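FIELD: query
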Amino acid sequence: MKINQFILFICVLCMFSSCRSEKIIVNKKIINTEGEPMLIGRITTDALTSPDFKDWYLKEYDSYIPKKKFINTIRRKAKFYRIEIFLGTWCSDTQEQLPRFLKILDESKFPKKKIDLYALNKNKESFYGEQNQKGITRIPVFIIYKGENEIGRITETPTHETLEEDLYNIFLRK
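FIELD: result
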């Protein structure tokens, strides 16, 4: 009986030790080789409004006016989708398109818990390798999922007139 209790104790101990998870670093800021600050890895929108990034982020966010004719459809369909965004705070396309895209999501009341933001370095690499297996060659890229399936992506700039029209068209396809 004592041997069985000892084995049970070891099994429980192993189970608890394997459940421990490392703390994921969020909003990691580094200084690149040019001496400029940049974010890397998983980030939140709070990091984009920090002193190092807020000038370009808030300028574009505040000045962008999404086309309302697409917002209502995006709002109605949002519950079925999730979005991964890969960006570079050092990238001029990110500095223009990311604030606009996030404003579209805010105005359409897209659930923040269904949006994951990952900042990449100039080699298009993240802190924990979140970009692996995603086929990212240009940024920003907005990847839209329904369940676990990718159903569309917007890379760098919109293919239609606006980002909200691109997102609207992706939502209507599926």
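FIELD: remark
The chain is about 40% helix and 20% strand.
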